[in-house]
Amino acid sequence: MERPLGASGRLVVISNRVPLPAKDGNSSAGGLAVALEAALKQHGGLWFGWSGRTVDQVENAPQIIEAGKITFAVLDVHRKDFDLFYTGFANRALWPICHYRLDLLQVDRSQTEGYFRVNRTFAEALAPLLGPDDTIWIHDYHFIPLAAELRRLGCRNRIGFFLHIPWPPSDIASALPAYGRLQNGFTAYDLVGFHTKQDADNFRQCLLRENLGFPVGDGEYQVGGHRFRIGAFPVGIDADAFAETARAAERNPTVRRMRESMEKRRLIIGVDRLDYSKGIKERIESYSCFIRSNPQFRNKVVYLQVTPKSRSDVPEYKRMQHQIAEQAGWANGNLGEVDWTPIRYINKTIGHMALAGLYRMARVGLVTPLRDGMNLVAKEFVAAQDENDPGVLILSRFAGAMHELDAALLVNPYDTETTAAAIARALEMPLEERRERWRTMMDRLRGNGIDDWCQGFLDVLTSGKSPVPPPQEG
Ligand code: G6P
């Protein structure tokens, strides 16, 4: 379907990470990047962001890579600025605050300034590449002030922003000393999107509490002479394509090796970046509690936790790497047998195909973040299941995905004993109930695919229509 972007306009996507085409032409991009690429291809488009390199001498002009109908433009960042912008403010102030972790908030004036400076540098590099009819879509917490910087440079284009992580209530958000500046930055957009109504409501409450303008009608907000929209756009996946990948993955060598190593035990799986928001520590505690209180499952299950390391230069993440490795070691030491390792904890990235196959093999998917914007692992786990004998999803009530996937076993991940009981219940769940729950969830996934998300956001951004509330939240 053609979207009504500006007459001669392109779509311009901006994100910190840019899925540059591989030299061999193969792309390793995930579902979300694939959907954005498809939208870019439809109109001819530009994808702008960080090159992935830090340097000591910065070139002001971005590097341009042409790939068919998409132009990629990427910028190197000075090593010191990157430490302040990414390792500092974005991931030691914004990330913990947005995940309700006031205890981990690091307040550092030079990091804050570095964040705003890098945003200004990106705006200055992007502005000359823009045409007057381009529609601009900025992604995630790294670039909240980017629209305000572009406006300062005279950009009058339609600009949308989507936050891929949660937005907290105003009492938490306002603990950030740069809060007022960020809020002002948001008001330079034409549309600000979140995954859930709860996040959008939190954001509205923040604007009201700061006396920043007032709501005018459905989803619209007026600040000074500028009106913008706020909406919830829950991101989805291409459920049928993922199901197909999972079916095909039965022959995948990693999946085969895993199956052979199981020796008829049942698989419980968790897949997360190594991040404190994912609740991995609490999950290992719950699993250990499950084994202790359900001795009939000793040596009958294997819990595979796939956890690629992430943001290792951020001290909170580095500390966590040690803590979780130690905890998994303790659990195996205390619970294991000569012929049974209760937890297989690995810090490798596993390819898309093999993961799909592992989800399909698993009887239980443990997706128990302490706070998460959406969580696509939950959705992919459901899509990967064999409809005749589906596994059970155990899902945190603090993940955005729970609004659509409420037919999962919903748990409070802080409550070790109840989560442990949910694992036992999932393993003992009769086939009919598993099928029923799976069907309900799969229908929801089919009703809100990744293209719906992309088109839904762009329709509201370009047409000025009011955002439709996501169906699951009324
Ligand atoms: C989250 C964020 C993304 C980010 C990803 C990986 O999903 O919403 O913007 O790219 O984590 O984190 P990293 O810091 O490695 O980019």
UniProtKB/TrEMBL annotation:
Pfam families for this protein: Glyco_transf_20 (PF00982)
Keywords: Glycosyltransferase, Transferase
CDD domains (alphabetical): GT20_TPS (cd03788)
Pathway participation: Glycan biosynthesis; trehalose biosynthesis
Example of a GO biological process term: trehalose biosynthetic process
EC number: 2.4.1.15
Gene Ontology molecular function: alpha,alpha-trehalose-phosphate synthase (UDP-forming) activity
InterPro entries: Glyco_trans_20, Trehalose_OtsA
Highest taxon of the lineage: Bacteria
Reaction(s) catalysed (UniProt annotation): D-glucose 6-phosphate + UDP-alpha-D-glucose = alpha,alpha-trehalose 6-phosphate + UDP + H(+)
Record-stated family: Belongs to the glycosyltransferase 20 family.
Record's subunit section: Homotetramer.
Protein function: Probably involved in the osmoprotection via the biosynthesis of trehalose. Catalyzes the transfer of glucose from UDP-alpha-D-glucose (UDP-Glc) to D-glucose 6-phosphate (Glc-6-P) to form trehalose-6-phosphate. Acts with retention of the anomeric configuration of the UDP-sugar donor.
Protein known as: Trehalose-6-phosphate synthase
